[in-house]
Sequence to fold (179 residues):
Amino acid sequence: MRTTVIALVVSAGVLAGGCNRSETTAPSAGPNGGDVVPIKNGTAYAELLANADTGELMVHTWDKDLKSPRPVENEPITVGSGDNSAELMPHPMASDPAGTCSRFYGHADWARGGTIRHGWMAMRDEGSQKHSFDWRGCWQGGKAHGRMWEEMGEHRRMGPGHGGPMGPGHGHRDGADKP
Fold:
């Protein structure tokens, strides 16, 4: 009888401790339809978008309500899947305060084709802790918001870490790369 009472008390303590956890459950999609990852101890979210045709990747950072951009430290964000990774460079919006950024951009050949299903994201200011997520909405969000890739302008042509070669029609302004 005493063993049963002790087991019940210990079980109740474990359950109560589990109820006090402050794990953040991310919404299923961000404002652009991309996959959402909690960052900054759940006080903000990162939304990942991907262009399956070009391998372009973009992260937008949002407040906890996903209503307004939430600028974070102006440091690259790393996005990956398995052993593959790409560093997304900061590309601040005009409204981002100095030294901060709410938009990050990069390119990864391994992301072409839209077949990635599981990934991770890491921010330097969070100790490069990997936040896992399923790549569900990022492909649709990236496709539905095609104009955002064009907004990256010259960054699409700058090479590793800035966009890299995007294929025909995305090279020099003079059109030298066009057939």
Q: What stands out?
A: The chain has one domain: 26-154.
